[in-house]
């Protein structure tokens, strides 16, 4: 029998002129050498030292302890006369018995009850009765190997301890602490040898398992400042991900590295209290204005019954914050980030508004502002700051009361500017942008379907197809924000794209119906084509009606349809090409609107040409022109010229809509129910504004960035 005698060990023990080379216990091979001799051992059974009462030693001075249940393959000598034996030691009646097995299959064996040296001598004589060669018994049996002695000592110590499961809870904890203290001591000793004096290595915690019981032991006193940053960073992460308390409590249970929930909750309250002192929140009672509500939403954005119920219970309450307070809080950080410049103290503010349709009768109305100077972050929801919100309806009379405080502040900012906390006087430039409905309400005008619909001119519905008029501005009621000049009321390019795309798609479906090709076949073709281009779409038949409703597409899906839908599957080739050309040209206009480098004159010509192309289509008429098409042709070019500094894409309200939707979906559930079952529960309106305040705090002080990120290594 043979075994590999040349392993590549990774550890050397050099002591008293001998060398042990091994990677034990990962590998069983041990190379041993000293002056004049060398042995290779393959450990089969490590064995153990019996109790002291009958533990035996080899006979020489400072003899080696003799293990029980020990088995090893030993080889030594020159290649041509190489010895290969298997040695076994077992205690019988408290005395060790020695075996030496040899031969190709270890079929021969020598047994001795005297000593390992006697067994080695008998082995030599068995090979050659006349030999005078003597082999060292301890070396043949490998009793001198220190690594084996250490391994058996460790096993023996473990045998004298109680099993972990037999300990009391206190005993288990004490054992874990004892291990941790030993590791800490080793760490300190190693750190002294391995680190520079200025490195200051610190062992903060230790993790290990004993019998599948995990332990996490913190070393030394807790760093109060570090822990505070960590807890505040956790509050920031929970707010950012809108993680509820119960959800976080479960996470903290799974991951012990996370701060406990009670600690996070306490820190959240402290942050909220700090920021609320700087940016107070106030409530306005609107009950009398909203008591008789016969308003019906044309489109439902949120139809969750729980949210609708909670929203209805909040009707009559409005929350607001001072735009001046928010600006004073934001300015230092904006200056630090070089968004604002104190040598040219000028701020460009965009006011926006949005109403989310919650069910059929309620809206959640939100008024925000953003700082156009911060160009790179305009499309992030946290950079649109809420000043006012209320559940109810979008109505001029209500907004006039709800926004009274904001209107006064904006007028003051426009006329006097803003003096910050350091005495710097900032000039304020005001803009307004929102979807069409909210914009015309704030302008005191009629709705988009009225005869005189345009906020920027006096065009009538009948005059939309006439390109010869030079329109002037008129209003039905006074502007809510009369301090903002009309040229600074900017249409939202996103809504313009969405609404015009809606019309183009509706006209396609209307044309299919007019051709008497509307049926299951046409609907199936549309569904298959939508599936091909990766858009989820389906038709549904209204209950008790023959009318077919279809999926309302999201913004990106509308662009996908506009670009990639194969119209040849619905129309003759010539007609499909005509519609495709119209769609392609509108898509190019949409891209040009978003690009601040677009040539305004060229865009104006292209927009007029597109509207001519629209009317030249054999199926479309002047009555199909929508307010947004009119604005695209007549007013967008001028807006692009006036606001080239920012580009019309900067006035997009998509972030405001997203913010409103997220807050309604999160804060009006039962867990944050307005006046819910638990006494003293805060209004959801207050919860939202406090969340907004914490967002302001974390915008100025990003706690997540202050938490050191450990390097994760494996050994």
UniProtKB/TrEMBL annotation:
PROSITE patterns registered for this protein in UniProt: IQ
Superkingdom of the organism of origin: Eukaryota
Protein name: Uncharacterized protein
Organism per entry: Rhizophagus irregularis (strain DAOM 197198w)
